[in-house]
Amino acid sequence: MKHINSTKLSVTLVSLATLFLLALPIPSQSAVQPEQQLLIDSYLTLARNYQEKKDFKTALIYLKEAALINPEDVEIASFASDLLGSLQIYCEDDINFSKVSAADVTHIPAIEPTLPDTYMSIADALRENQHHETAALYLREALQLRPNNITLMFDLANTLNMANYNDESLYLYCQLLTKCPTNKTILYNTAYTFKKIGRMDDAMLFYNAALEQDPEYPEARFSRGLAYLVMGDFEKGWPEYEWRWKRPGYPPMRPLTEPLVDPNVDLNGKLVYLYSEQGLGDTFEFIRYARVMKQRGARVVVSVQNPLVTILSLCPYIDRVIALNQQPVKFDYQAPLMSLPYLLGTTIKTVPTDIPYLYASQPLVAEWKEKLSTEKRFKVGICWQGNANYRTAALRSVVAAKAVPAKKFEKLLEVPNIKLYSLQKETGLDQESQLSPEIYVFSGDFDDSHGRFMDTAAVLENLDLFITVDTSMGHLAAGLGLPVWVFIPNPPDWRWLMDTPDTPWYPNMRLFRQTTPGDWDSVMETVKEELCKVVEQFMKNNVQNSR
Asked: What is the pTM of this model?
């Protein structure tokens, strides 16, 4: 074997180590579990990424991790062959990898110093796909190798936070604060975690401490605003909520020169331009303020997300509905929809609650009434998941926490005299095939030919109750005036307040809250019990009315 330089030797030795590890006897492919296959796929993806960058050493480290799970995987073996071929570029021509002996392996230098970085990269990939618990395992391993690394400890604390291991994340944040007592980011994350577990007084202490370090810290100002709002202190919450515009990555407020809506100006005959800024549910909830503008004599134009243009055009208090990327040529006043509670000084007692304020197409309502007329049982719509396609892992994590597995709704089939209708759209449809045939699924051109939400709204008008997770569908149904029951995760979104069974936003809505994060079974059991009472009364009323 010819002499090669130290750089080439390092790469070669890593490849030899990988070959050795590929030969380790571990369980056969038939024993690989789905969660293990998920890890294998993640490792292979990372390995390919590094292969493309010609960082073959790192690629082999990831390939080793995949091989340790299943060395019999044909794809792993093929990939190893490709990588070793690439490594030949960097080695002398006469090196024969097939003749490596055990003695060669004993001289392989330790590669442990690179493992923390490897584990951190793996954790990043796992977090991106919502596998926070598994990511935390890798970060723990990395922290054992670098026990004094503050960045790594903070990363682990944040990952545990996302996995809802709140007590452990708080412990790590407190450890970090002993080392960095004035670090505003650690103070903020500590406050955020206390807010998650409902310890609002403690949360406020740490929010204030973070803001003592930096009074202009947007994340802390905004998050403290959410804390005020969830506690029902709208007077303090709405001004802080306006700090969302300064958060990193948040879209800037539109650069309009026209004045913002003012509660003290005369709007009679003035053109007010309002525009959406967040999700579909937020638009459904806050479009009610367009009616407030109309009641003050204004002409109202709103820009909304494309899927909502058709259905919101049915609102009689809106003069014109246009797409989100449009705006009128001329107008007198303007506001983002979600700034209106702040601009108008909304308190918990002055939320506009005239229901309904959303409307379905009456011809479609009549059409669906005819289609559903043969069903005499208590008709309940269900929805189990919100939009899972947000661009950031954090937002996707929030949606995942709100979702209820579709199969759990089959518990409601135990209630006598009930008929369930799935109104799930866009995402979560992969779960429909798992549902009992007793749950009706709308198909064909539902919500396509007439426009997004149009058939849904008409069906909702013909149901007796809608049961849903916290998503736009709940806001639509409640705005239409239908009785709505909503599953609320722990911790709740700011708009649902703390521990209340109802909400100031919708007098026709009941909230069913998790007491333990992730526990939907007990919530579903409570919903079933309450549904039994409602359906029993419904059937009694039907009997009496038929006499």
From this structure: 0.77
Interior angle at CA 355, CA 378 and CA 383, nearest 5:
45
Rg of the Cα trace of the chain? 29
Which residues lie below 8 Å from residue 292, measured CB to CB, with a gap of 6+? 340, 344, 352
Using the predicted structure, report yes or no on whether residue 100 has a pLDDT greater than 50: no
For the ranges 15-24, 26-35, 300-309, 535-544, the lowest mean pLDDT is seen at: 15-24
Q: Are 293 and 357 in contact (CB under 8 A)?
A: no
Q: Which of 469, 466, 497 is nearest to 479 (CA)?
A: 466
**What number of CA atoms fall less than 13 Å from residue 304's CA on the CB side?**
25
Please tell me the number of Cα atoms within 13 Å of 337 on its side-chain side. Answer: 24
Sign of the CA dihedral 245, 247, 250, 251? positive
**Long-range Cβ contact pairs of 224-228 (< 8 A, separation 24 or more):** 224/191, 226/195, 226/494, 227/191, 227/195, 227/200, 227/203
Confirm whether 129-246 and 362-546 share one CATH topology: no
H/E segment holding residue 513: strand 509-513
Enumerate the H helices of 197-317 as residue ranges: 200-213, 218-230, 234-241, 280-286, 288-295, 309-312
Quick one: DSSP state of residue 506?
B
In DSSP terms, 323 is beta-bridged to: 304
pLDDT single digits (tens) 345-363: 999 999 999 999 999 999 9
> What's the rounded Cα separation, in Å, for the pair 342 and 345?
5
Burial (CB count <10 Å: 0-12, 13-18, 19+), residue 474: buried
Q: Which two tokens stand for residue 458?
A: 């008409």
> What pLDDT score does 51 carry?
78
Give domain 362-546's CATH superfamily.
Glycogen Phosphorylase B; (3.40.50.2000)
Q: How many CB atoms lie within 10 A of CB 463?
A: 20
The rounded distance, in Å, linking the Cα atoms of 85 and 46 is 18
Q: Which fold has domain 129-246?
A: 1.25.40
Peptide bond between residue 356 and the one before it cis (omega within 30 degrees of 0) = yes
All structural domains of the chain with their residue ranges? 6-109, 129-246, 271-343, 362-546
DSSP string, 300-360: EEEEE-GGGHHHHTT-TT-SEEEETT---S--SEEEEGGGHHHHTT--TT-----S--S--
Task: Using the predicted structure, report yes or no on whether residue 145 has a pLDDT greater than 90.
Answer: no
Joined together, the tokens standing for residue 502 give: 């109802």
pLDDT in tens, 226-240: 999 999 999 999 999
Angstrom distance (rounded) from CA 212 to CA 313: 47
| Among 292, 291, 280, residue whose Cα is nearest residue 316 | 291
Q: Say if residue 246 is exposed, middle or buried (CB neighbours under 10 Å; 0-12, 13-18, 19+).
A: middle
Whole-number Å distance between alpha carbons of 323 and 366:
28
